[in-house]
Amino acid sequence: MKEDIRAPLIIQTNKRATEEQVENGCYEKKQDTCMVYLSTFVAVCGSFAFGSCAGYSSPTQSAIREDLNLSIAEFSLFGSILTFGAMIGAITSGPIADYIGRKGAMRMSSAFCVAGWLAIYFAQGALSLDIGRLATGYGMGVFSYVVPVFIAEIAPRDLRGALTTINQLMICCGVSVAFIIGTMLTWRTLALTGLIPCAILLFGLFIIPESPRWLAKIGHQKEFELALHRLRGKDADISEEAAEIKDYIETLEKLPKVNVFDLFQRRYSSSLIVGVGLMVFQQFGGINGICFYTGSIFESSGFPSDIGTIIYAIIQVPITALGALLIDRAGRKPLLLVSGTGLVIGCTLTGISFYLGGHEIATKAAPILAVTGILVYIGSFSVGMGAVPWVVMSEIYPINIKGAAGSLATLVNWFGAWACSYTFNFLMTWNSFGTFMLYAAVNALSILFVIKIVPETKGRTLEQIQAAINSS
Fold first, then answer.
1. Is the Cβ–Cβ distance between 399 and 213 less than 8 Å?
2. Mean pLDDT value across the chain
3. Residues 44-65 pLDDT 10s
4. What pLDDT sits at residue 30?
5. How far is Cα 171 from Cα 179, in angstroms, rounded to an integer?
6. How many C-beta atoms surround the C-beta of residue 18 within 10 A?
7. Do residues 73 and 195 touch, judged by C-beta distance below 8 A?
8. CA 54 to chain centre
9. With contact defined as beta carbons under 8 Å apart, do 155 and 36 qualify?
10. What is the pTM of this model?
11. What is the dihedral of CA 391, 396, 399, 401, to 10 degrees?
12. How confident is the model at residue 258 (pLDDT cuts 50, 70, 90)?
């Protein structure tokens, strides 16, 4: 009798718990995320390879110039040609990822990086050195697009932000490791260490599944369901997620094929403005100028450059990790707003330090202001503006334009990186105070852009994000 009375209450309680799970995005009760984590680890080996490429030239400059008898102009070409390779990679990354798949694009990118590192290792002159650097730059350009897109497409909605942010964290780790071990190894040996993440990635790609959304898009139904089962666990109920993805793909198939010029149609304008706009503000806020010339900034302000650079390298990794932990709890917009505010403060403090130094006012305080401003700047960039634009870019575009739109956004990002790093020394020669106040103004505009234009994507499936954008 008592068991009969209790039974309905137990069923009702379980039903209520299940409803709460659905509301919180945990709609697969037996979901196993082990394969998601493994797939993310394999993919972000590409991000680490990206960071290794970016950080290689700084600790090796004097050794390469001495061993190969390079002029400063020849070494400057070696450093900057990386960005041109990345621009080419950015242009081709989207179509390649759409044609041969996300895994295929990562394989090809790894192959370019391996070839580039070997060319650098065996280089006997400037030409092979530049060819190798151009090849690694191309690999970087492809990685910068396909890694966050792949992670966004395989991750459950409640983990997507944090897992995608690991992309930026691993880039920071790659740069920092290159800086540190570059002081202990020869430049040729350092080039060989760049092969390690590529080898792990190439091996790991044989184990992990392809993006289910890409498989659904090209009509491989059996492989799509198998990949989704592997990512969610063999006991997980994937019917709801699979149906949502398939319904969305069927809707997209009714739309015409798009190219870069079609992106500027009214129906895609909101997604395009958000994705490209965030990349513009990320780069033109001054990050690459400050990153490439941190030592000279500290030196110009009167602070020991070696100490400042070490502090800079150490601080960015844990703060980027903090951003990865917060992105799915605090949301994308709050992190961008906090980050933008910190960037404005950091630029303003650094600008004031140069103003005081130039006018010989409070000369003892000026170096402290400079290092404080730079550290506030890099900390603020690492927690939000460094990673979040890539997360949003991977979420914001409809899958039928994701290739073309992602290529455009990545190209804009790399063009901004080149423009900022190329003009930084000219701007500093013109007016150091004015340079940082200009960056502060750009970052202030980014805050307004985020408030007015950027949508919050936390806790939504990619299909729900598109529905919200289209309805607005």
1. yes
2. 82
3. 999 999 989 988 877 787 788 8
4. 53
5. 12
6. 13
7. no
8. 13
9. yes
10. 0.72
11. -110
12. low
pLDDT, tens digit (0-9, with 9 covering 90-100), for 162-216: 787 788 789 888 988 887 788 788 999 999 999 999 999 999 999 999 999 899 8
334 residue type, one letter: P
Write the pLDDT tens digit of every residue in 301-321.
Answer: 677 766 776 777 778 778 877
With contact defined as beta carbons under 8 Å apart, do 281 and 442 qualify? Answer: yes
Closest alpha carbon to 94 in 235, 260, 242: 260
Q: Say how many CA atoms lie within 13 Å of 355 toward its Cβ.
A: 11
Whole-angstrom distance, CA of residue 410 vs CA of residue 90: 5
Q: Helix 57-68 and helix 126-154: axis angle, to 10°?
A: 160
What are the pLDDT digits (tens) for 364-390?
777 888 888 888 998 899 888 988 888
* Residue 223 tokens, joined: 């492989």
How far from 426 is each of 3, 299, 378, 422, 446, CA to CA, in Å? 82, 17, 22, 8, 24
Torsion of CA 455, 460, 466, 468, to 10 degrees: -60
For residue 255, the model assigns a pLDDT of: 67
CA distances from 234 to 100, 160, 450 (A): 27, 20, 40
* Measured distance CA(319)–CA(176) in Å, rounded: 13
Confidence of residue 27 (pLDDT cuts 50, 70, 90): very low
HEC letters along the chain: CHHHHHHHHHHHHHHHHHHHHHHCCCCCCCCCCHHHHHHHHHHHHHHHHHHHHHHCHHHHHHHHHHHHCCCHHHHHHHHHHHHHHHHHHHHHHHHHHHHHHHHHHHHHHHHHHHHHHHHHHCCCCHHHHHHHHHHHHHHHHHHHHHHHHHHHHHCCCCCHHHHHHHHHHHHHHHHHHHHHHHCCCCHHHHHHHCHHHHHHHHHHCCCCCCCHHHHHHCCCHHHHHHHHHHHHCCCCCCHHHHHHHHHHHHHHHCCCCCCCHHHHCHHHHHHHHHHHHHHHHHHHCCHHHHHHCHHHHHHHHCCCHHHHHHHHHHHHHHHHHHHHHHHHHHCHHHHHHHHHHHHHHHHHHHHHHHHHHHCCCCCCHHHHHHHHHHHHHHHHHHHHHCCHHHHHHHHHCCCCCHHHHHHHHHHHHHHHHHHHHHHHHHHHHHCHHHHHHHHHHHHHHHHHHHHHCCCCCCCCCHHHHHHHHHHC
> Are 310 and 447 a contacting pair, CB within 8 Å?
no
- Dihedral of CA atoms 139, 144, 147, 150 in degrees, nearest 10, equals -120
Block residue for tokens 């149609």? 265
Structure tokens at 35: 């394969």
